[in-house]
């Protein structure tokens, strides 16, 4: 018999923290807290395997599930002294989702389940508070109808708002029990009207409806989008947690809140959180009421006059604080907690590793190592490499003039400017048009994920530091100002106003997620300096990493940035990229369009000094570090003149007629330029190109060697080789030029010649090709293109569909297809080394900056990865984590 259900609570549990694959993160941690003897309301977890079963069996359940759920419910009833569905002593439960990794806002929660027209009375009598009971019931109808029955929650809000304005009431807490009874009738009427059947009164029907809704929400569009963005496989499934209710809305001695054991924005070691008196969980995150600070310190810092939990409920606070310390030490990580205080008694509802900004992740990792909680190596594993991107975000120049229109909460760091848009669809469309936008919303919801992704930053007028907007923006590394209550957002007229000023949709604003300020117009930004914790952690990472990290750079500026970020050489200098600048393109076009060798040589002679100077500068910047220069690899279509003006320009320079040149250009057009006359094929046809480039490289090496006093050993790389003979032919041109330059200058030259491996044939024939190559660099952009037979330039139009239809988990041009393209990399590496055991191997496709792909490169034993300058720190950390993983 398969076990589908696991109980927890009352100081024991069937599960434990290490069962998160089966129980989901929330379920596993509830079990662990129970095992630790912490006050956890009893409950049970329906496993993720049920979710998988559900989708494998046409959305049905295993036969024995029902009996197991009944048994688990009875156990919860026994602990609480209640019974589910009982009219006198009813057990009420919450139903929540919980996948292996937390997916904030993605899944839905139902509270107060089990209430109906009868049980509500029993609950009210027992609590001696009918208002509380009816408040809970109306919440349940609202939530259940929204999440399970699909009735839009705005329709309920409207009924509520209308009641409040008719009776001149400000807050929900001013509504009386009798009022709620009337409102509940209207709520039920609304449901019946919308659905053609009454709101379900049978608690069991309610429960199975909620369980089905949790499983159903696993496959919603928004959940699928989130999974795609976070590389979460869809077969993981979600668990369902059913837990006895405890009530934060039982009057003034009850409360509910969320907290982090350390500050999730800055990493500061201080309990940090928010709570609301007489409220239920969703009130805190929904941002309907503005929450209060948990600690006195935070309250004072925020300048708030409303009391802290520490002051208001000192006993519950003290117990909570000690549980926080205990959980942090137990999990050896910063925890994100949810709690409820019911009539003065503290209950823990959740603990999990807290999401944090990159800045906080660094600080917490470095601090915890200093506190002895973690080893330095463990600290290295605690920062997600991709998150370092956040640290590279700009901040507002302190010298810049700030025209501040309003401010809100500093919810996610970084600053950004963009046009105001009010909907996520507008944001996405603007992004598609190449415009930068700030998404401005009263509050965000999971439906806004795509818009948040498309915008530079997010501004909301409602909600706290743990609101949806704040949590999701931090996860995305986007600047966010939340809860800017002084900003009035008018969706209908497309305006925002504050302090007597009004801005329109399309106007540019800047938000500063570090200070919470909202500024008019675009503001000067500063690039961040990487120091302190960053340097410390990177130092530890560099100490454990095996692979080197190089950069892909072709301009002196890029090379300098990369070196500052810790690049240990250049792994790919794409020489054709140097050809687009200024006047050069004319000479390049002349070279390509010449019909004679003589003509080509004349054009190449113009390019030589420019190339030599560029190379010399790069060698000087990279002094002492290896530099790999790739010979020309232009898909010709990128270089051919297109407009009449361009044609006339080149024709003039070459002294031929525009018509003749146009004819030649047409004759060079290819059906499939990416598979056409490019790479070494061009060098085979026109050896003079390789000769000019080799000369520029050698002369620059001599020049830079003299200038810096450090001899330069250039690595010359031949692109798109498929046949050993191609490489041999180009090699002969390079070697002849080396001999010539040595003879002319009397200097001796040391250099290496290698090849890119970017065609399946090159990988398969690596043993043969290695006879002529001193190094290989895997060009996985082309290797992905040629292995899949998918055009790099056309993939975008259909790869998205492949991902949503589940054919591909990830875009293979972003993260290496390890089983297909990766297999060729592995074969190429093994076969290359079978010929030349000490052969240097690297990767220089975009995958060289992708953490998962870097992990793969470690397993194949590559010597280095090479990536764009801004990804160098990410690659350093990812390479360190890969090395640590390889040790275990
Ligand atoms: C590659 O193909 O992976 C590569 C690095 O070369 P390019 O992107 O310039 O074709
Ligand atoms: Mg390539």
Automatic annotation (TrEMBL):
<feature type="domain" description="Pyruvate phosphate dikinase AMP/ATP-binding">
    <location>
        <begin position="311"/>
        <end position="370"/>
    </location>
</feature>
<feature type="binding site">
    <location>
        <position position="779"/>
    </location>
    <ligand>
        <name>substrate</name>
    </ligand>
</feature>
<keyword id="KW-0067">ATP-binding</keyword>
<dbReference type="InterPro" id="IPR008279">
    <property type="entry name" value="PEP-util_enz_mobile_dom"/>
</dbReference>
<dbReference type="InterPro" id="IPR013815">
    <property type="entry name" value="ATP_grasp_subdomain_1"/>
</dbReference>
<dbReference type="GO" id="GO:0050242">
    <property type="term" value="F:pyruvate, phosphate dikinase activity"/>
</dbReference>
<keyword id="KW-0808">Transferase</keyword>
<dbReference type="InterPro" id="IPR018274">
    <property type="entry name" value="PEP_util_AS"/>
</dbReference>
<keyword id="KW-0547">Nucleotide-binding</keyword>
<comment type="function">
    <text>Catalyzes the reversible phosphorylation of pyruvate and phosphate.</text>
</comment>
<dbReference type="GO" id="GO:0005524">
    <property type="term" value="F:ATP binding"/>
</dbReference>
<dbReference type="InterPro" id="IPR040442">
    <property type="entry name" value="Pyrv_kinase-like_dom_sf"/>
</dbReference>
<feature type="binding site">
    <location>
        <position position="782"/>
    </location>
    <ligand>
        <name>substrate</name>
    </ligand>
</feature>
<feature type="active site" description="Proton donor">
    <location>
        <position position="844"/>
    </location>
</feature>
<dbReference type="InterPro" id="IPR036637">
    <property type="entry name" value="Phosphohistidine_dom_sf"/>
</dbReference>
<dbReference type="GO" id="GO:0016301">
    <property type="term" value="F:kinase activity"/>
</dbReference>
<dbReference type="Pfam" id="PF00391">
    <property type="entry name" value="PEP-utilizers"/>
</dbReference>
<dbReference type="GO" id="GO:0046872">
    <property type="term" value="F:metal ion binding"/>
</dbReference>
<dbReference type="InterPro" id="IPR010121">
    <property type="entry name" value="Pyruvate_phosphate_dikinase"/>
</dbReference>
<dbReference type="InterPro" id="IPR015813">
    <property type="entry name" value="Pyrv/PenolPyrv_kinase-like_dom"/>
</dbReference>
<dbReference type="InterPro" id="IPR023151">
    <property type="entry name" value="PEP_util_CS"/>
</dbReference>
<keyword id="KW-0460">Magnesium</keyword>
<feature type="domain" description="Pyruvate phosphate dikinase AMP/ATP-binding">
    <location>
        <begin position="21"/>
        <end position="58"/>
    </location>
</feature>
<feature type="binding site">
    <location>
        <position position="758"/>
    </location>
    <ligand>
        <name>substrate</name>
    </ligand>
</feature>
<feature type="binding site">
    <location>
        <position position="758"/>
    </location>
    <ligand>
        <name>Mg(2+)</name>
    </ligand>
</feature>
<dbReference type="Pfam" id="PF02896">
    <property type="entry name" value="PEP-utilizers_C"/>
</dbReference>
<keyword id="KW-0670">Pyruvate</keyword>
<keyword id="KW-0479">Metal-binding</keyword>
<dbReference type="Pfam" id="PF01326">
    <property type="entry name" value="PPDK_N"/>
</dbReference>
<feature type="binding site">
    <location>
        <position position="630"/>
    </location>
    <ligand>
        <name>substrate</name>
    </ligand>
</feature>
<feature type="binding site">
    <location>
        <position position="782"/>
    </location>
    <ligand>
        <name>Mg(2+)</name>
    </ligand>
</feature>
<feature type="domain" description="PEP-utilising enzyme C-terminal">
    <location>
        <begin position="531"/>
        <end position="882"/>
    </location>
</feature>
<protein>
    <recommendedName>
        <fullName>Pyruvate, phosphate dikinase</fullName>
        <ecNumber>2.7.9.1</ecNumber>
    </recommendedName>
</protein>
<comment type="similarity">
    <text>Belongs to the PEP-utilizing enzyme family.</text>
</comment>
<feature type="active site" description="Tele-phosphohistidine intermediate">
    <location>
        <position position="468"/>
    </location>
</feature>
<feature type="binding site">
    <location>
        <position position="781"/>
    </location>
    <ligand>
        <name>substrate</name>
    </ligand>
</feature>
<feature type="domain" description="Pyruvate phosphate dikinase AMP/ATP-binding">
    <location>
        <begin position="59"/>
        <end position="296"/>
    </location>
</feature>
<dbReference type="InterPro" id="IPR000121">
    <property type="entry name" value="PEP_util_C"/>
</dbReference>
<feature type="binding site">
    <location>
        <position position="574"/>
    </location>
    <ligand>
        <name>substrate</name>
    </ligand>
</feature>
<feature type="domain" description="PEP-utilising enzyme mobile">
    <location>
        <begin position="436"/>
        <end position="516"/>
    </location>
</feature>
<dbReference type="InterPro" id="IPR002192">
    <property type="entry name" value="PPDK_AMP/ATP-bd"/>
</dbReference>
<keyword id="KW-0418">Kinase</keyword>
């Amino acid at each position: 018999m398969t076990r589908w259900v696991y109980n927890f609570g009352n100081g024991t549990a069937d599960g434990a923290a290490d069962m998160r694959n089966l129980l989901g993160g929330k379920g596993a941690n509830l079990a662990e807290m129970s095992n630790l003897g912490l006050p956890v309301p009893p409950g049970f977890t329906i496993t993720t395997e049920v979710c998988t079963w559900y989708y494998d069996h046409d959305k049905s359940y295993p036969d024995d599930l029902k009996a197991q759920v009944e048994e688990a419910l009875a156990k919860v009833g026994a602990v609480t002294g209640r019974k589910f569905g009982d009219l006198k002593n009813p057990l009420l439960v919450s139903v929540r989702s919980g996948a292996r990794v937390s997916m904030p806002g993605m899944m839905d929660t139902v509270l107060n389940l089990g209430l109906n027209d009868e049980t509500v009375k029993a609950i009210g009598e027992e609590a001696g508070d009918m208002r509380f009971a009816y408040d809970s019931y109306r919440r349940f109808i609202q939530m259940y109808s929204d999440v399970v029955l699909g009735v839009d929650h705005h329709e309920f809000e409207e009924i509520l708002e209308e009641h409040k304005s008719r009776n001149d009431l400000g807050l929900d807490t001013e509504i009386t029990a009798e009022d709620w009874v009337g409102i509940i009738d209207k709520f039920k009427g609304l449901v019946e009207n919308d659905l053609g059947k009454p709101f379900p009164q049978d608690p069991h029907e309610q429960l199975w409806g909620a369980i089905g809704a949790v499983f159903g929400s696993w496959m919603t569009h928004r959940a699928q989008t989130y999974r795609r963005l976070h590389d979460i496989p869809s077969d993981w499934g979600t668990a369902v947690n059913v837990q006895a209710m405890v009530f934060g809305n039982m009057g003034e001695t009850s409360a509910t809140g969320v907290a982090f054991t350390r500050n999730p924005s800055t990493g500061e070691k201080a309990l940090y959180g928010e709570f609301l008196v007489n409220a239920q969980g969703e009130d805190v995150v929904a941002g309907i009421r503005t929450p209060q600070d948990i600690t006195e310190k935070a309250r004072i810092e925020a300048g708030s006059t409303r009391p802290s939990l520490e002051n208001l409920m000192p006993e519950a606070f003290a117990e909570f604080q000690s549980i926080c310390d205990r959980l942090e030490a137990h999990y050896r990580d910063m925890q994100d907690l949810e709690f409820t205080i019911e009539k003065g008694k503290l209950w823990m509802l959740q603990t999990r590793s807290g999401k944090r900004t990159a800045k906080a992740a660094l600080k917490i990792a470095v601090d915890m190592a200093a506190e002895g909680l973690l080893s330095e190596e463990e600290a290295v594993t605690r920062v997600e490499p991709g998150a370092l991107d956040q640290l590279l975000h700009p901040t507002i120049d302190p010298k810049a003039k700030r025209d501040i229109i309003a401010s809100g909460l500093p919810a996610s760091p970084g600053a950004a400017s963009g046009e105001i848009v009010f909907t996520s669809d507008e944001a996405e469309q603007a992004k598609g048009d190449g415009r930068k936008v700030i998404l401005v919303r009263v509050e965000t919801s999971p439906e806004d994920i795509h818009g948040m992704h498309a915008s530079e930053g997010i501004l909301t007028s409602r909600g706290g530091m743990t609101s949806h907007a704040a949590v999701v923006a931090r996860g995305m590394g986007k600047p966010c100002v939340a809860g800017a209550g002084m900003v009035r957002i008018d969706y209908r007229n497309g305006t925002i106003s504050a302090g007597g000023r009004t801005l329109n949709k399309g106007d540019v604003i800047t938000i500063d997620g570090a200070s919470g300020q909202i500024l008019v117009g675009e503001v000067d930004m500063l690039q961040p300096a990487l120091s302190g914790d960053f340097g410390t952690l990177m130092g530890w990472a560099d100490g454990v990493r095996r692979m080197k990290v190089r950069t892909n750079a072709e301009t002196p500026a890029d090379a300098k940035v990369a070196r500052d970020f810790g690049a240990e050489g250049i792994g790919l200098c794409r020489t054709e990229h140097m050809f687009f600048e200024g006047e050069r393109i004319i000479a390049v076009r002349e070279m390509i369009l010449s019909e004679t060798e003589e003509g080509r040589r004349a054009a190449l002679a113009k390019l030589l000094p420019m190339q030599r100077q560029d190379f010399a500068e790069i060698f000087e910047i990279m002094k002492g570090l290896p530099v790999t220069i790739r010979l020309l690899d232009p898909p010709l279509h990128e270089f051919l003149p297109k407009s009449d003006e361009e044609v006339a320009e080149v024709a003039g320079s070459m002294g031929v007629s525009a018509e003749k040149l146009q004819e030649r250009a047409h004759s060079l057009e290819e059906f499939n330029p990416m598979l056409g006359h490019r790479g070494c094929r061009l060098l085979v046809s026109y050896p003079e190109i390789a000769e000019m480039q080799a000369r520029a490289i050698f002369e620059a090496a001599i020049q830079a060697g003299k200038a810096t006093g450090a001899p330069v050993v250039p690595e010359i790389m031949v692109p798109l080789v498929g046949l050993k003979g191609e490489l041999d032919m180009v090699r002969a041109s390079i070697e002849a030029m080396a001999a010539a330059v040595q003879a002319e200058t009397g200097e001796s030259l040391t250099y290496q010649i290698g090849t890119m491996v970017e065609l399946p044939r090159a990988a398969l024939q690596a043993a043969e090709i290695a006879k002529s190559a001193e190094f290989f660099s895997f060009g996985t952009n082309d290797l992905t293109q040629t292995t899949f037979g998918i055009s790099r330039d056309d993939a975008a139009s259909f790869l998205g569909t492949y991902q949503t239809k589940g054919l591909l988990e990830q875009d293979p041009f972003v993260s290496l297809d390890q089983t297909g393209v990766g297999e060729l990399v592995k074969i190429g590496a093994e076969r290359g080394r079978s010929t030349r055991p000490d052969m240097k191997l690297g990767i220089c496709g975009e995958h060289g900056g992708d953490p998962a792909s870097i992990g793969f490169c470690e397993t194949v034993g590559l010597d280095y990865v090479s990536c764009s300058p801004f990804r160098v720190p990410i690659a350093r950390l990812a390479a360190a984590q890969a090395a640590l993983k390889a040790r275990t």
